[in-house]
Specification:
This protein has 327 residues and is mainly alpha-helical. It has 17 helices and no strands.
Length: 327
Amino acid sequence: WARLALHLNFEGVSWQAAGRPIGAIALFREAVDVARREHLPRALIGALANLCAALKNRDLEAAIATGREAVAVSRQAGARDLWRASAVNLALACWLAGEWDEVESLHSEHLEDLVDTPVDLALVRALVVCVRNARAEPVDFELVVPDADDDPTAESVGAWMAALVADAEGDVDAAAQEYARGVGAMVRVSGLDDDFGVLWPLAVDCAIAAGHTDMAQRLLTYVEDSPVGLVTPLVRAHVPRVRALIGIAAGADDAVIDADLELATRELRGFGARFSLARTLLERAGRLAGCAEHDAAAELRREAEDILGALRADRWLAEARGISVPL
């Protein structure tokens, strides 16, 4: 039974790498069922960790439940060598869902295990930096860029960390370049799956902030040029927001921009990406306030403030309160 569970998990990884995520998820689930039924904790942990990684792009609630089980079983079994992958995948899902305190706790609780794997440490710390930036909190550890060693996964994580370093130094142009490099490396590894949906929106936001509308458009092209079936629900939820941001920067038609922002609101709400939803609501509120549609703007701002308050995202709360809506 142990060999069967491990084989199913291995085949799931192969299917995922081959761009067959639905089949991969089915194989991971079967591996979980076999391992749980036959009381095989190590096989169970590995399958749960991989299932969490695949589900975070499709079903956040299920991904977090799966990731938490992987971490819990790792602790119960004393399988410290398996904690790392479980914690990393859970941290990614928690970032997307706005479970940011859990990202912080996973970093602190698993730091001893992460230090031996520079890429995993950099990935989790990149998430922690993103959380603290949104919360306007200080970063109390060194931002270390891991060596790539001709590994595109390491290159993508390293570029992400390099972007955060550049941003911390106030060089938004260099940050945008690094984010774009990281997305390119990630596409070579996993197409639009795996961690693409985490890094890609950050890269677009940075490109827009740096005034590189052409770069943002090139980043969008990765998705527009892909077959529809390879665009994950997570990425699909972000697409209308990305289009709207590019449209705003390029001076596109207001009706098209507003339609994209409305669609993004529905998609991000449905997926459960709370932080991105709040930022979309802020964008809509600002535009409505600018058109003197104060009641609608106030409603959107209130919802955004509720979300951002729950996340303790003080940086963005300040922006929300800066939207002038007469009472």
